[in-house]
Amino acid sequence: MSQLEILEFPDPRLRTIAKPVIEFDEKLQKLVADMFDTMYEAPGIGLAATQVNVHQRVVVIDVSEDHSQPLVLINPSYTVLEGEPEEMQEGCLSVPGFYEGVTRIDHVLLKACDEYGKPYELEARGLLAVCIQHELDHLDGKLFVDYLSTVKRSRIRKKLEKQHKLQA
Ligand code: K1U
Ligand code: ZN
């Protein structure tokens, strides 16, 4: 397995809309394995292919504390189930060091395929429901900072741009 480089905000490649996966082949299975490796190492609880500059509808998630609940989401979609929107603190591996409150649906029905093309459905609540929405946003070129005020988003962008200049 290999570690993949994670793009950071405000990299314009994070705004790319990902294309559906058509072939469930070994290349896809290697991408999924590398994405888990990268996510666990970061560490994070989710990673979308967009974040590693691969523009296909591929997501990995594991919200467990012991890496025991890996989920592969290929060509995912969700529908909203009953319940009130709730605010939760969110972070993002593409926006390192920043955590902000975002209001999202707390209960969703996920439909996706695994890396072998097998379709499945999963009812998700709480952190998993939030993580699914966050990762599916990435596939559509959207970041959690887009839900913040312009002032907050531009403050975060300036701080990260400054860090990137220092690292260059
Ligand atoms: O998509 C990403 O950038 C991953 C992101 C997912 C996420 C976090 C919080 C709410 C919604 C979605 C992260 O994993 S940020 C890191 C993080 O939250 C975390 C890291 C280690 C242990 C527990 C959480
Ligand atoms: Zn993210």
TrEMBL record:
Binding site for Fe cation: C92, H134, H138
The enzyme's E.C. designation: 3.5.1.88
InterPro entries per the UniProt record, alphabetical: Peptide_deformylase, Peptide_deformylase_sf
Superkingdom in the source lineage: Bacteria
Catalytic residues of the enzyme: E135
Cofactor: Fe(2+)
Alphabetized NCBIfam families for the sequence: pept_deformyl, PRK00150.1-3
Protein name (record): Peptide deformylase
Taxonomic path: Bacteria, Pseudomonadati, Pseudomonadota, Gammaproteobacteria, Oceanospirillales
Name of the gene this protein is made from: def
